[in-house]
Amino acid sequence: MKYLEDRKYVIQAIFIIVATIYALKLFYIQVIDNKYKLAAENNAIQKNIQYPFRGLIYDRDGRLLVQNMPVYDLMIVPKEAKNPDTLHFCKVFNIPVDEFREKIKAAKAYSWVKPSPFLTRLSTQEFAAIQEYLTDFPGFFINARTVRGYTHQSLAHALGYIGEISPAKLEKPEYAGYLPGDYLGISGIESEYEKYLMGKRGVKYKMVNVRGIDKGPFRDGEYDTLSVAGENLVSTIDLELQQYGEKLMKGKIGSVVAIEPATGEILAYVSAPGYDPSLLTGKEFGRNYTKLQRDSLKTLFNRPIMATYPPGSIFKLVQALIAMQDGIITPNTGFPCNQNLIKCSHGHEAPTNLRIAIKHSCNPYFYQVFRNEINQGKSRNIFVDSRIGLDHWREQVLSFGFGDKLGIDLPNEKKGIIASTKLYNKYYGENRWKFSNFYSVSIGQGELGTTPLQMANLMAIMANRGFYYTPHIIRSVGENGKPLAKYSKKHYTSVDQKHFEPVIDGMEDVVARGTGSFAKLAHVGITVLGKTGTSENPHGDDHAVFVAFAPRENPKIAIAVYIENAGFGAISSAPLAGLMIEKYLTDTISAPRKRWEEWVLAGKFKPKKKR
Amino acid sequence: MALIRSSKLRQSLDWPTVFIYFLMVGLGWLNVYAAVYSPDNVINIFSWDINSGKQLAWIGTSVILIIVVLVIDYKAYDSLAYIIYGAMILLLLATLILANPIKGSRSWLELGAVRLQPAEFAKFATALAVSKFLSSVNLRQQNWQDHAKLVALTLLPPFIILLQNETGSALVFGAFLLAYFREGMSPLILIVGTVAVALFISTLLFPKLYLVIVITVGLGLWLWANQRILMRKWPLILMIYGASIGMIFSVDFFVNNVLQEHQQNRIKALISPEADPRGFGWNVTQSKIAIGSGGFMGKGFLEGTQTKFDFVPEQSTDFIFCTIGEEHGWVGSVIVIGLFVLLLTRIVKIAERQKSVFGRTYGYCVASIIFFHFLVNIGMTIGLAPVVGIPLPFFSYGGSSLWSFTTLLFILLALDANRKQDLTR
């Protein structure tokens, strides 16, 4: 019997082993594994985000550019919305039955007890129409929030729009604070200044039971936080000038960028064709967006910073400045207008000095300037000499803000292209190219690409005689905030101040007596200094370009006007730039200029290939 | 006479067990209150409207029950064992006929305001009967008639209970194997049983081919090391091997064709509750979340969110351990587990000091039944056992189960208190 008595140890051992296993398993799920704590919080503690008001945006004179407007989301809690009367529902909310079923399915897939949006962005009118029927549908309720609203139809490309965060972004660590369905700035200022505009979200924790029924605040609101409204932004845009620019560009394709040279502040930022920014708010967002996206004119394309064109004749200004800085020419250097070197279609007086050459945009003159710039005889080998020359030249061109992003506070800015050793090595092979391979760069064609913004910035450099501030579209964060520090830094070009006046002399002649005379504002006492250009377009009619700044002393505005497929800058872009300058400087259009206003508005420019 | 007996009883009663009992019942009562507590509608713990108030009534009546059990002449339990057993069988049959189905189960008898579950009381009745039977036969003797009688005695109540559709309560009777083991049953039965359960669960968890390979290679290695056994017992080994492989390939058939759907789901929930956390996996998932969220020290009395807001089903009855785990954390859980180990080892100690085979066997039956409940109830809340609806002794809300366990335990204490008189009998 003794051995049977020993079995009591076996039996007690079984008790203790089971108890030990349980204690260990409990230690694992209670102390080591955190997933149950998270799951418990998800279960019982509902986190309600309190969305703050998004910051407003004002123009430089305090006019409201972007505000908030109320919209209403119809939310659903599938568990409470058992068996709604489908037909009645579809009639009230005016949606097809299939869509209704699909949305119900999606909501159930998301969560049985948590609310999810069913119909979003209902307007105040739509909300009023359905409000009385809401009681017929348990499990549905209205969640009010705001969308962006506009008091004008301007500046859509720069303002950008907000939209639901994409699943791809949600997975990135920098968007960790966002939840599915959250809105954020997707383009333009809305995106660039998201962190200021969004404000600080508040959180309210409340406890819910298994049926999702509210059981009061969690720990009496100990962990709740209040939302803080987003910061308002003050833009550099002059809404009146902006709207005038958009009016003038109506029916055309292109860009107008105007900058205040003394600050780098962007006064007008026109991308044509434009669109009404309110199209991308509200319930019709999806439909409108698709429509704009499929538009053959590429309406959504943000031309001032994303379109790159060969700078054309305007680039001759840069060529002259660099050549003077390097001592290749002086203001009095003359070259023959040798049409054997390069075609020059203007029959004009002999370019016996730089001023005349600029006035007439003489191609052979700048061919010879650039040739001497590139081949300075630093090496006996013509290929090596060309490379040394090009590298030295390029470095200086870059100091004008070309070939790289200027750093405007808008997303997706393009760098542009400036001819480089790297590029030609790729084309021709190392030491297998020389000046003759890229002589067209001398007149702004060939391996050059610049954005309208960069060209407007070039005018700011001319106006400032050698430096620029990074062009920007937001002056300050907060209505009384200080100007943003990063935009108060002067960027100097490689060219000394003294070399600018001779070039500006040439620009004065361009408007006073040359190709830019349709921008002339002498009758109201304003000296406009400008340069026409034509961007060669292999796909169709050339693009008309005119850049200018005014007045000559203490300049207030620098501007670049691009009109695609309008041919010669002198008859389209130049008068438009003149109108913009006059509008900005005098606040009105003088009677003699009304004719040009009508001409530009009509937009019947006769394309004519000229250089 | 009664006075003498009561003073004697006071001296000879096993007070540690009584103390553990009241501690468990008291803690159970507080946790029943915590389980039904609702912060936005606080009801007094004594209120008859909630389970804690009712449980207090059950505890009060249990005290009366204890006095009755202790006052009755201890010899009656021995001499009336078969009669009590027979009466209980009749009651089970009567219940089968009279009961109104509740959630598919025909196991509840309604007596006015109270509902009783006779299946609960069948446990102590069967424990008495099998103890009585074992005190008259010797299990080690290979008398197949005795074995058959014992099997019949043990399996008749669970058979009727199965007919009532109370699978969980029926399974409890398997616990008697542990008591029989102490009384001389071959350990092979326990080992084979354990191995079969382990193999069953492994088959559900792992690919069949792997299991076949593991068993074949393992057995091969073992036989290679013990070649003498192979020589002597090769037919048996071949049989065991064949049975194991056969089991591996018949588990699917068993699960899919023999078990009812809700039973299949419970097995699926044990293996992968994630597969359908809102369906069959709900209980296990929510129960683990509640316990797991308790952390080391717990959220504090009445501070649990999972159990309060109805995420855990049956929280005051079968899932009472979730409240303990959530509000008192690992420390509280281990204290409860420790109390059970203390109680079980104390019962074994009591059983071993009985002079009669009847008393000893009964003691082991008590330990086995409580252990089985402990094993399955806590196991299911932490995902180590399938969800079988049986209560946690002394903790779970419910009159039938509290009365039943009280009777079960205090009959043993009554026998123990009088064990010295057995000598003089």
CATH topology of the largest domain in chain A: Beta-lactamase
Q: What is the beta-strand fraction of chain B?
A: under 5%
Instruction: State the name of the first-level CATH class of the largest domain in chain A.
Output: Alpha Beta
Low-confidence stretches of chain B: none
Question: What is the tally of beta strands of chain A?
Answer: 20
Q: Examine the secondary-structure arrangement and name the CATH architecture of the largest domain in chain A.
A: 3-Layer(aba) Sandwich
Question: How are helices and strands ordered from N to C of chain B?
Answer: HHHHHEEHHHHHHHHHHHHH
Q: Note the quaternary state here.
A: heterodimer
General form of chain A: elongated
Percent helix of chain A, as a range, is 25-40%
How many domains is the backbone of chain A divided into? 2
Total of DSSP H or I helical runs spanning 4+ residues of chain B: 18
The total of beta strands of chain B comes to 2
User: What structural category characterises the helix and strand content of chain A?
Assistant: alpha+beta
Tell me the layout of helices and strands.
The complex is a heterodimer of chains A (611) and B (425).
Chain A: H1 2-5, H2 7-32, H3 35-44, E1 45-50, E2 57-58, E3 64-76, H4 86-93, H5 97-110, E4 116-122, H6 124-131, E5 140-149, H7 156-159, E6 162-164, H8 167-170, E7 183-185, H9 188-192, H10 194-197, E8 202-208, E9 214-217, E10 233-235, H11 239-248, E11 254-260, E12 265-272, H12 285-294, H13 303-306, H14 315-325, H15 354-360, H16 363-374, H17 382-398, E13 417-418, H18 421-428, E14 448-449, H19 452-464, E15 467-469, E16 474-477, E17 490-492, H20 500-513, E18 529-535, E19 543-550, E20 557-563, H21 573-586, H22 591-602
Parallel strand pairs in A: 2-10
Antiparallel strand pairs in A: 1-8, 2-3, 3-4, 3-5, 6-7, 8-9, 10-16, 11-12, 11-20, 13-14, 15-17, 18-19, 19-20
Helix pairs in contact in A: 11-21, 14-16, 15-20
Chain B: H1 2-12, H2 15-36, H3 51-71, H4 75-79, H5 81-98, E1 109-111, E2 114-116, H6 118-134, H7 144-163, H8 167-171, H9 176-182, H10 187-205, H11 208-225, H12 227-258, H13 261-271, H14 282-292, H15 320-352, H16 357-381, H17 399-417, H18 419-424
Antiparallel strand pairs in B: 1-2
Helix pairs in contact in B: 2-3, 2-15, 3-17, 5-6, 5-7, 6-7, 6-16, 6-17, 9-16, 10-12, 11-12, 14-15, 15-16, 16-17
